[in-house]
Amino acid sequence: MNNIYVELIIQLIKTTPWYSIVTAVVTLASTVAAVTPTPKKGTTLSKVYGVVDLLALNVGKAKDK
Predict the structure, then answer these.
(1) Shortest CA distance to 34 belongs to which of 5, 63, 1?
(2) What is the per-residue pLDDT across 19-33, written as a single tens digit (0 to 9) for each?
(3) 32 touches 39 (CB < 8 A)
(4) CA angle, 31 as apex, 28 and 32 as ends, to 5°?
(5) Burial of 33 (0-12, 13-18, 19+ CB in 10 A)
(6) Following CA atoms 21, 33, 63, 54 in sequence, which dihedral angle do they give, to the nearest 10 degrees?
(7) Would you state the pLDDT for residue 22?
(8) Helix crossing, 18-35 with 44-55: angle to 10°?
(9) Please, are residues 35 and 58 in contact by the beta-carbon 8 Å criterion?
(10) How far is CA 2 from CA 7, 10, 11, 48, in A?
């Protein structure tokens, strides 16, 4: 039964070029968010950082405090 799911996921990856792009964006944003310090609130840089956090899927309990 698990082989069906694995084959389905592999087929999805092979047939949809957007999947690799989304994966690369999340990985890059996650790396940037991990290595940069959190800027002070209210600055332009903090707004950019918020977008990077969103792209990195750093939401809820995953956010840096």
Answers:
(1) 63
(2) 778 888 999 999 998
(3) no
(4) 85
(5) buried
(6) -40
(7) 87
(8) 130
(9) no
(10) 9, 12, 14, 41
Residues 6+ apart with CB under 8 A from 46: 38, 39, 40
Q: Which amino acid is at 32?
A: V
Residue-by-residue pLDDT tens, the chain, 65 positions: 578 888 888 888 788 778 778 888 999 999 998 898 889 999 999 999 999 998 998 876 666 66
Q: How many residues appear in the chain?
A: 65
| Residue 2, both tokens | 């698990």
Cβ atoms within 10 A of the Cβ of 52, count? 16
